[in-house]
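It is worth pausing here to work through a concrete case rather than discussing structure prediction in the abstract. The textbook approach is simple: state the sequence, then state the predicted structure, then interpret. We follow exactly that order.
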Amino acid sequence: MELSKALEDELSGDFLRAMLLWTPHPAERDAWLANEALILKDNSGHRHYLLVPLVSAYRYEGAEVDMTLVNPEATILHEKISEKAYNHEEIIRILTTRSKAQLNATLQHYNDQFGHPINKDLKKNPKDEYLRLLRASIKCLTCSEKYFEKALRLSMKGLGTTEETLTRVIVTRAEVDMKKIMEQYQLKNGVSLAQDIKGDTSGDYLATLLSLIDHHA
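Step two, the predicted structure:
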């Protein structure tokens, strides 16, 4: 609290927000961001059924895959999505408890068996906010660098910059998977992430963002 107060007394704007996000322990920071999101947006209804287990369920993080689960769980996902039971407990269970490696194997089998990726089946109602949340969760869980590359790209697209998104992604992923995100950004956009940040920000805020990504370059 004393450090936060000192920062607030000395800094302002986007630079202040970046520093306030960077200084806490990652777990404390994630809890603060989650609480902020819950305050700003109504997360009742179907969204609640997905978001709560996403942040609270135990998830094995190893590389081992149980191949005996791949076919039955891909089939369950397809059946429930075909029934439009998007918030079915089995969908929630699979997405919120399976490891990244297990989910990738299951969703690859889904693609192979049913002829298209799962997110295509979840786009049948593009304006449905819960389906958007499902698609984003799947993308983030299985290929986080693509999810965060898109978030960064959209934050700097067109006139103006969405500094809140830019700050949040750079700060929270700096010590997680920033190298992969930067590689994906270069591949997708033909320019480096650093180059686009330099074109859209300035001053101490720019220097802070660059310092967080420079050691991955």
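Step three, interpretation. The mean pLDDT is 89. Residues 67-82 form the longest helix (16 residues).
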